[in-house]
Amino acid sequence: MAGDLENTLYLETKDGRVVIEMRPDLAPNHVARIKELARAGFYDGIVFHRVIDGFMAQTGCPDGNGMGGSGQNLASEFTEEPHVEGTCSMARAGHPDSADSQFFIMFARSPHLDNQYSVWGQVVEGMEHVHAIKKGDSMSNGSVTDPENIISLKVAADVA
User: Where, by residue number, does the polypeptide cross the bilayer (predicted)?
Assistant: First the structure.
């Protein structure tokens, strides 16, 4: 169980709770925005639209297709923090400062992402539920037909 409830997220999936320890020491602006969106209920019901077996599960697009966001781009907060199993990092378009609301959770180590995406958290409990998320079509860049959704994403301090 994570200690700092203000910097802990509870991500509820169909299979159970995933506990994410946020890292404001690495990405303070991204953590603040994710908490703001979570508190507004933005992520509740949003699907995991891109899930690549052995790589990552991506979510946070209100359109469900990877093209949408909350409408507020964030400046990059790249660090040397490695992308390992359970790492939570921001998705973005080609420009480094184009992250918005979409994020991904790593299934495995992916060094090619290091210092290219803003790492903002780490799964500390429930990684088996992340691994259970329905995988997408490898021939369609992980696009998922009939994708699973986030039941809710809450700041733990608001739940406890």
Answer: none
